Amino acid sequence: MGNPQQDKQSFELLPIPQEMLSDKEIGERYEIRRVWDKEEQIWYYSVIDFVRLLTNSKNANVYWSILKKRNQQDQGFQDILKKIKELPLRGKDGRLRGAECVTREVMLRLVQNIPSPLAERVRLWLAQVGEEKLQEVEQQTQAEQLRAYYIHQGRTPEWADARIQNLLSRNALTDEWAARGAQQHLHFGLLTATIHRGTFGISPTDHHHTVKQLPKSTKNPRDHYTEEELGVLTLAELAARRMHEEHNSQGAAQLLQDAQAAGAFGGNVKIVLRKC
Q1: Taking the domains of the chain in order of start, what are their residue ranges?
Q2: Order of all β-strands in the sheet with 42-46
Q3: Coil vs helix vs strand at 111
Q4: Residue 9: which of 31, 32, 39 has the closest Cα?
Q5: Whole-model pTM?
Q6: Where does 162-216 show beta strands of DSSP type E?
Q7: Which contacts of 228-233 are long-range, i.e. CB under 8 A and separated by 24 or more positions?
């Protein structure tokens, strides 16, 4: 019989570009293991692989253990540790072993907590790698599976396509926020609510629980949006990302200014759509 945990996941090795490494590391091959969790629809990255890359330590496991002990009083670091998930990854011997893994979003934060001359280059590379969700052949397969799932749930093909595009938009935007200094537990909610309120004239909480009357336990409220709502919000989030790039926005304050402008843009798009 197959391993149920393994059946939920697929594995991948990401080679580190040599140009990202310093001259001393040229010629040595670095790879990052990641695993796709089919239930959560997200990549998880091996923590120890990044520790090894950043520190060039011969015993990355020991370094990682010491780092965790040294940061026991650091609340931000402890928040990162709470996001760690143990998943089976293949070692060099081909055998599966439990390994500490985190999402790319969490890894972007973790990289900043490991002293290394490579930290900035690794962070930028990781941001560029992105979830790569729904890209190229492998990701297209996942998109088709997700599309089939929504249609099986009674959604129209048009709605399913709009939802997938919105997932792409949201993932790309949160990647941008993390790469530009926003912290998930402090800033993501505010930035999200700002774009949402500007677009729909109502907070996400009121939209979900008052207008749509969704239970507070609803995990994915956007699965209950109309096709029009998804389309408008996707455009607003794309506008925010483009503004971040154009302004080279850094930090929560600058990102918030872009979010406000993107929300105003989304609100105008909604008005125009209603007139059609």
Answers
A1: 4-129, 136-275
A2: 9-15, 31-37, 42-46, 96-103, 85-90
A3: helix
A4: 39
A5: 0.53
A6: none
A7: 228/273, 229/200, 230/159, 230/162, 230/163, 230/165, 230/166, 231/162, 231/165, 231/273, 232/199, 232/200, 232/266, 232/269, 232/270, 232/273, 233/166, 233/169, 233/195, 233/196, 233/199, 233/200, 233/266
Pick from 272, 265, 170, 181: nearest CA to 223: 170
pLDDT tens for the 276 residues of the chain, in order = 445 444 455 777 888 777 666 554 445 567 899 888 877 778 899 999 999 999 988 889 999 999 999 998 888 899 999 999 999 888 877 778 889 999 988 999 899 889 888 888 888 888 777 655 444 444 556 677 788 889 998 999 999 999 988 988 888 899 889 889 998 889 999 999 999 999 999 999 999 999 999 998 888 899 999 999 999 999 999 999 999 999 999 999 999 999 999 999 999 999 998 887
- What phi and psi values does residue 37 have, to the nearest 5 degrees? -90, 110
